[in-house]
Specification:
- With about 350 residues, the protein is of the alpha/beta class.
- The protein is about 50% helix and about 15% strand.
- It is built from 15 helices and nine strands.
- Helix 12 links the parallel strand 7 and strand 8.
- The longest helix is centred in the middle third of the chain and has 25 residues.
- About 50% of the residues are buried.
- The model has no long low-confidence stretch (mean pLDDT about 95).
Amino acid sequence: MTEKLLLKALQGKRTARTPFWFMRQAGRYLPEYRELRAKKGGFLDMVYDPAAACEITLQPIRRFGMDGAILFSDILVIPQALGQKLEFVAGEGPKLGKLDIDALDVSAIHETLNPVYESVRQIRSGLKNEGFDHTALIGFAGAPWTVACYMVEGQGSKDFGRAKAFACAQPDQFQKLLDILCTATADYLSRQVEAGAEVLQIFESWAGQADNQGFYDWIIAPTKKIVATLKARHPDIPIIGFPKGAGSLLPVYAAETGVDGVGLDSLTSPAWVKGQVPGKTLQGNLDPFALLAGGKALEKRARAILQAMHGTPFIFNLGHGIDKETPIAHVEALVKILRNKES
């Protein structure tokens, strides 16, 4: 059986080379993705079409042979499955309907999400059938704080001021929302594992928007609850937490949530964090715009990260998702660096 380096790294073991995958590796920078999207129409139409979601997930693996293939979906399928209206407006991003916390129904989420589980099954089969035995399948969900921010705000935001004000002014109601999201997210991720996901990533995209106390109450506590639930059901499943913008609270997040791996954003110093989170596999953290720029800047930054992480369990990734304008040649150049560099 071909060794999956991503899984080995998440077990804290040394790998023959540094495993890698890239956030948003399946997306608009790929012409084959743009072609399929033009045929399919809306974004959610692709998310809920298992054949399309499988095809999109496999597209970057065919080109670049990453060590991880991440499910093509979106973090906002959870609020939609709970009963909140969701649409993606061209040029504007996600728009959610009015939030009624009392009307959210955890018991009904799988009716909406069953196509996602079928996507996971098809991707796992597709990886095997196309000979990508080295590539691990990554399932994911948004963390409760990040998803709640969208649900309260109704759309994306630079500071999620409405959501933060609501969380502070109505703590009991906000906690009720977080509790609902904890249950739904744990069930959703558990079903992904049952369908064939080998790794899970929890995206806390807006960790940097919480204040100090909120970071403990809204980020660490819910994530810890989800991780404990998943580990009780699936003891061997590795879980990566990605608290973007956590800053100096990253070591606390790593220590208290129970995640196996910690994703780093581009602002985090690899040399600093290496000594702050013992016993955890680290993942990151090339600036996506260094990848967009390419050339010597890309090579210098990529090699600096590899050197800083030498000797520790590590997965190379970006500090956030690939920019849609990124030339394919730049991704090819980065992959060449990663494959030629000893870990």
